Amino acid sequence: MSSPDRRLADPEASWWTYADIAHRAGLSERTARERMKEWERAGFPVALPHSRRELRWYPPAVLRWFERIEAAARAAPPQLAIIQGGRG
Predict the structure, then answer these.
(1) Longest dimension (CA), the chain
(2) CA–CA separation, 52 vs 63, rounded Å?
(3) Rounded to an integer, what distance in angstroms lies between the CA atom of residue 86 and that of residue 63?
(4) What is the pTM of this model?
(5) How far is CA 31 from CA 3, 11, 19, 38, in A?
(6) DSSP secondary structure string, 20-47?
(7) How far apart are the C-alpha atoms of 13 and 20, rounded to whole Å?
(8) Is 33 exposed, middle or buried (0-12, 13-18, 19+ CB in 10 A)?
(9) pLDDT by residue (tens digit) across 7-54?
(10) How far is CA 81 from CA 78, 84, in A?
(11) What radius of gyration, in Å, describes the C-alpha atoms of the chain?
(12) Angle between the 59-75 and 18-25 helix axes, to the nearest 10 degrees?
């Protein structure tokens, strides 16, 4: 849980929590936690070593990961559906 005086997903912050990552991804914190194993397999940055009780991540590394994933999604060619035209 983030403190009320801290702005979520602030790129200038010293560290990010699940709340920041969820905010950046546009997900609930619960969904971000559920997707973390999948994201880690896709190269998501590891948590900072000194964060044991509440996991924390280095914001620039997290932002680079999101940018890389989003760029790959934009670069993927759209799948075209073959539409059968009716013959009369």
Answers:
(1) 70
(2) 22
(3) 48
(4) 0.79
(5) 20, 21, 11, 11
(6) HHHHHHTS-HHHHHHHHHHHHHTTPPPP
(7) 10
(8) middle
(9) 999 999 999 999 999 999 999 999 999 999 999 999 999 999 988 789
(10) 9, 9
(11) 18
(12) 30
Distances (CA, A) of 75 to 12, 52, 78: 28, 37, 9
Enumerate long-range contacts of 23-31, CB under 8 Å, 24 or more apart.
Answer: 24/62, 24/63, 24/66, 25/66
- In angstroms, the CA 88 to CA 32 distance is 51
Residue owning tokens 């194993």: 37
- Distance of CA 46 to CAs 5, 21, 40, 50, 59, Å? 26, 13, 8, 11, 11
Q: What are 9's two structure tokens? A: 């997903």
